[in-house]
Amino acid sequence: MKYVAVLCRCIAIALPLMCTQPQWAHADSGAQQEFQAAMRRTADPTRGRELFPTCAACHGIDGAGAADGSAPAIAGQYYAVILKQLVDFRDDQRWNQRMEKVLYQRHLIELTDFADIAGFVSALPRQPNRNIGDGSALRAGTAAYFRDCASCHGAVGQGNAARVTPRLGGQHYIYLAREIRLAGDLRRPNMAAHARTVRKLSLEEINGVADYLSRLYPVAERR
Ligand code: HEC
Ligand code: HEC
Question: Which residue's CA lies nearest to atom 34 of ligand 1?
């Protein structure tokens, strides 16, 4: 009888742990469910191409983003990462008026639309990036990157599709530096898990990490 009680207690403790997916530990459950529902859709990239002009207005016809860094490069980002960001902008896990406005337009309301666009955009080739830092913080930034970030985002910022970890290599300097600062200030909910690490970085290190990544043009490991 005693053993049964112990066994029951062990199961009670182990079950919730087994059911938790650690990488989503900080995610809002509504957004998480919507993302998982979106991942079950089958993307139609041909339809995605038809919807893409809405996006090209800011992200460019080649998905390279705006050269001044005001809109990020999205071409060649992983399918799951793009899909998750689209869901997150809509589900209050990421705050940006311009993106929210686009995604609330009635013709982009279906998760299938998100999947189709993500299918098209993820297959676009990543373009060489000209929005890079001034090099002054490169040494400090590279060291910080390999110490705190490369374990997940990869040595050349290639990310990891299976872990829904974004590719950062070749992204705009201005954009990266801004997103890292937002994470440190808890102003980007889907990066809340970054806050503790980012707060330990100096401004020089943040700018240097962004500079290091902006210069990379990863050709290794596509998906
Ligand atoms: C009015 C300009 C504008 C339009 C139109 C627009 N975007 Fe964006 N997009 C932005 C800005 C600005 C950001 C950066 C937001 C931020 O800093 O959080 C962004 C961010 C993104 C991101 C996140 C990138 C990353 O690396 O995490 C994705 C994905 C994205 N947009 C896809 C799209 C798609 C797909 C469309 C078309 C349906 C679209 N955008 C239309 C301005 C725009
Ligand atoms: C434990 C793994 C892990 C570590 C360590 C990590 N990241 Fe991330 N990072 C992620 C994941 C996963 C995402 C996607 C978050 C989401 O959208 O849910 C992400 C997102 C990002 C983004 C947003 C990319 C975009 O396109 O908008 C930036 C920028 C970033 N990380 C920078 C960093 C930096 C800088 C460090 C080191 C200081 C770092 N990360 C450390 C896993 C990690």
Answer: 55
Spatial CB neighbours of 162, under 8 Å, sequence gap ≥ 6? none
Which residue, by CA, sits nearest to atom 40 of ligand 2?
A: 149
Residues 126, 129, 134: CA angle, nearest 5 degrees: 155
Q: The tokens of 4 are what?
A: 């049964």
Question: Is residue 15 pLDDT above 50, yes or no?
Answer: no
What percentage of the chain has pLDDT greater than the value 70?
84
211: Cβ below 6 Å to ligand 2?
no
pLDDT, position 123: 97
Q: Is 151 exposed, middle or buried (0-12, 13-18, 19+ CB in 10 A)?
A: exposed
Taking only the tens place, the pLDDT of each residue in 37-50 is 999 999 999 999 99
Q: CA-to-CA distance for 106 and 104, rounded, in angstroms? A: 6
> 120-151 pLDDT, tens per residue?
999 999 998 989 999 999 999 999 999 999 99
- Of 74, 126, 149, 182, the residue with max ligand 2 atoms within 8 A of its CB, to mutate for a pocket test, comes to 149
* Pairwise CA distance, residues 108 & 1, whole Å: 58
Closest by CA to 59, choosing from 86, 94, 93, 36, is: 86
Distances (CA, A) of 14 to 4, 8, 19, 22, 101: 15, 10, 9, 14, 43
